[in-house]
Amino acid sequence: MSAETPAADGQFTRRRQQFRDWRGTRPFWAGLFVLLGGFPIMYFPYANLQFGNLTVAMSTTAGAGSLIIGVLLVVLGVSLWFQKHVRTFAGVAAILLALVSLPVSNFGGFVIGFLLSMIGGAMAVSWAPEKPRGEAPGSAVDDPNHLPGTNPATGANGRHSAG
């Protein structure tokens, strides 16, 4: 085997490349942030911390509301992965749920869940699908004055203009 011989792709390399390709076609990181933001919002209202012999119960009267907000954030995060066309709705809903979690759920999961959900929601709203590789920047597709069915090089009616 020489230095010029390409290495054979193993199963791990192929799967990693498939995951990378899949991840690049959707708001993956936005979904991950929203999903991870739901867990502290769900967990902290039901948690009991042990400090030696001292037990600190953080349960609140709004425990059910915290659970609902957390579950909805997890569902929105997963839907961002598998249904990328709902990205704007899911992003706005994640931002609103994160804001509602501040008064309902121990300051939004002690601000951890709040920040993760806000960042993920903002990333989801701002994500845009990649343009197809065949389109060159500055082509007729990007020109707002270009009318369909006309050739921008020859003129509006398709004939060369007589100079």
Automatic annotation (TrEMBL):
Keywords: Membrane, Transmembrane, Transmembrane helix
Keyword Transmembrane helix: yes
Domain of life: Bacteria
Pfam families per UniProt: DUF6114 (PF19609)
Spans through the membrane: 28-46, 58-81, 88-104
InterPro entries per the UniProt record, alphabetical: DUF6114
Region described as Disordered: spans on this chain: 130-163
Name of protein: Integral membrane protein
